[in-house]
Write a structure and sequence with these properties.
globular; Alpha-Beta Plaits; 4 domains; six-stranded mixed β-sheet; 407 residues
């Protein structure tokens, strides 16, 4: 499985996409049926001949076609004629891909290995898509400086950046959160690159070996922590730390895996925003914000005040981290409840729900940014889908929080 380039000798350039793939013969179906992806790029050539295969059974399946920055799904390509510059994503077993190369007179393309374009030497290598996570050390780095081939034996075949596909000029491109890399390599190397670079594999490579003999132990620890937190007065932080320590002691998790799981960015964010929230309380800034809000709302009842406070929380969390919003608005919520003369619980729940409903922007939450690249979403897609969801959440929270958590 690899990226393929069609030259002037290719037999499918100029054919409609659906006919081109229907006329590629299936010569042998004894290999693995697992679908795997391959990129093929059509070189700037003229169409020459029709496919020589006469069997109408498909050997590979067309998944997507990229043309002029637009993505066409398989069902949209029936009337499209394969043209110069098209990039195709096809699926098939390694044997089928190899026969496809031979049948269509295609050639294996070069890939990027530590900044240098080199030939692909093994069609049996795994190919996978990997998303650059927000906390990845590769964020902001040039692709040519990553040295993935030297460190892990992994080569870079392509990049999806801000909805556009790139297979050339990769060396000088800087990675950003949400970018999708098309990687080629042995499975162990791909997993090592994923772990070290905090990449999320989304397609084309199986998960590594799992320590299934420890799954029951891990489940017991998790259930015990949750049960003790729900049924006793023991601090949740103490229970969680004890559970994490037991995971390591009982070898459900290695120490290095536990250390990699720590999100330094989140820890630093909380370490900075918690003192800031305390400073807002001690300096009177939180009370000033409450007075301003009450002045705007006038003689509104607690339900309307709660609804507006939820809306404020939800708008802030679209631009800031939900952790930061929760910490910063906590003292304001407590002061607001005291000023109105009601229980603070509904306002705390408004913070919890409002800060978690980050639907409007890609930067609202990490998962929003992660799926933006693989899904081909734009900023407008988040607004179009997220705005109705946010309004529904606002109305439901405004109605249900006072019922479930009375003033």
């Amino acid at each position: 499985i690899t990226e393929l380039w069609l030259t002037g000798e290719s037999t499918i350039v100029g054919l409609p996409a659906d006919r081109a793939f229907e006329r590629i013969a299936t010569m042998d179906r004894t290999q693995s049926a697992t679908l795997q992806r391959s990129h093929r790029r059509i070189q700037n050539t003229q169409p020459r001949a029709r496919n020589r295969a006469q069997d109408d059974q498909k050997s590979v399946e067309l998944l997507q076609l990229f043309r002029d920055g637009r993505i066409y799904r398989a069902e949209e390509t029936a009337r499209l004629v394969l043209a110069s510059g098209d990039v195709l994503i096809v699926a098939g077993t390694p044997g089928e891909i190899a026969r496809f190369v031979e049948t269509t007179d295609s050639h294996l393309a070069p890939v990027l290995a530590d900044g240098t374009r080199v030939p692909v030497d093994d069609i049996e290598r795994k190919v996978c898509e990997a998303v650059v996570l927000p906390d990845s050390p590769y964020n902001g780095q040039l692709i040519g400086e990553l040295k993935l081939n030297e460190l892990f034996g992994v080569r870079i075949m392509g990049l999806q950046h801000r909805g556009r596909q790139f297979v050339t000029g990769l060396r000088e491109m800087r990675l950003a959160s949400g970018d999708v890399l098309l990687l080629q390599g042995r499975q162990p190397g791909l997993h090592q690159a994923s772990d070290q670079g905090k990449l999320m594999m989304v397609e084309g490579v199986e998960r590594g070996i799992l320590r299934t003999n420890k799954n029951r132990t891990a489940l017991i620890i998790m259930v015990a922590v949750v049960a003790l937190a729900a049924l006793t007065d023991l601090p949740i932080a103490l229970l969680a730390l004890t559970g994490a320590a037991l995971m390591i002691v009982l070898k459900c998790l290695r120490v290095e895996e536990a250390l990699r799981a720590l999100d330094a960015g989140t820890l630093l964010l909380l370490a900075g925003t918690i003192p800031l929230g305390l400073a807002m309380e001690t300096t009177g800034l939180a009370q000033m914000a409450v007075d301003l809000l009450l002045r705007v709302l006038g003689d509104a009842g607690p339900v309307l005040i709660l609804s507006c406070f939820y809306l404020l929380t939800n708008l802030l969390t679209q631009l800031l981290s939900n952790n930061a919003v929760a910490v910063l608005l906590l003292p304001i919520g407590l002061n607001l409840a005291a000023s109105v003369g009601v229980s603070p619980t509904p306002f705390l729940m408004a913070i919890a729900f409002g800060a978690s409903a980050s639907f409007l922007t890609p930067m609202g939450y990490q998962t929003n940014a992660i799926v933006m690249g693989p899904g081909g979403y734009s900023f407008g897609d988040y607004l179009r889908i997220g705005l109705p969801l946010s309004i529904i959440m606002w109305l439901v929270a405004s109605a249900m929080i006072p019922i479930l958590y009375p003033f």
